[in-house]
Amino acid sequence: MSLVTLLPFIVLIGAMFLMTRSAKKKQQAAAQMRNQMQPGTGVRTIGGMYATVKEIHDDSVLLEVAPGVHAVYAKNSIGAVLDDDEYNRIVHGDGDLKADGTIVPDDASSLTEATDSDSSDDAKIDLGKKPEADDVKADDVKADDVKADDAEADEADAADAEPKDAEAKDGKADGETDAK
User: Fold this and answer.
1) What DSSP string describes 93-114?
2) Each residue of 99-141: pLDDT tens digit?
3) Are the CB atoms for 105 and 111 separated by under 8 Å?
4) CA distances from 38 to 59, 62, 119, 148 (A)
5) The three-state (H, E, C) secondary structure of 29-85, written as one string
6) Helix (H, G, I), strand (E, B) or coil at 12
7) Of 86, 54, 99, which is closest to residue 73 (Cα–Cα)?
């Protein structure tokens, strides 16, 4: 076999080696982090729960989830060991929150309230609504259209009614025919 034929296989094996090597490094760093836990430190589980470490055993950890509430977790379920400052900021809300942009209020009422200076400067906005005089004329036009439609309908009814009257004048009832 030539080198050109083996080159794709060599590249594939090399890529697999690099990927497994980086995964092993991440696992070792996570294991080292878990081994450095001490009672009293704040942790975040892989499920996103924040707790304080109370006791550490070989494969398990006793966590205080809330004051007086303890739970036993596997060591592998610890996602991160937090600094005291970060843990207190997240759990207790201590410390200043550093906002880079504008702070958005919890409700929109403060965004819609008008101040005295804003209300005097506001001009009436034309929303394209017709004045009332035009509305009345439009109503009159609509009423005239309805009257014309009614008149046409009455004429059509009268035309349909004439043959019936003619039959009644001949003395024949509906459904009778001449027997002559």
Assistant:
1) --S----SSPPPPSSSHHHHPP
2) 566 666 677 776 666 555 555 555 677 777 676 665 555 555 5
3) yes
4) 14, 11, 61, 93
5) HHHHHHHCCCCCCEEEECCCCEEEEEEECCCEEEEEEECCEEEEEEHHHEEEEECHH
6) helix
7) 54
- Whole-prediction pTM: 0.44
Residue with tokens 């459904």: 175
Tokens of 94: 């201590």
Which H/E stretch holds residue 149?
Answer: helix 132-170
Residues of the chain under the 70 pLDDT cut: 1, 95-105, 110-123, 129, 131-180
Q: What are phi and psi of 60, to 5 degrees?
A: -135, 165
Q: Which long-range contacts (CB under 8 A, 24 or more apart) does 56-64 make?
A: 61/37
Q: Which amino acid is at 60?
A: S
**74: Cβ contacts below 8 Å, ≥ 6 apart:** 59, 60, 61
Exposure string (b/e) for 50-86, b if CB count within 10 Å is 16 or more?
Answer: ebbbeeeeeeebbbbeeeeeeeebebeebbebbeeee
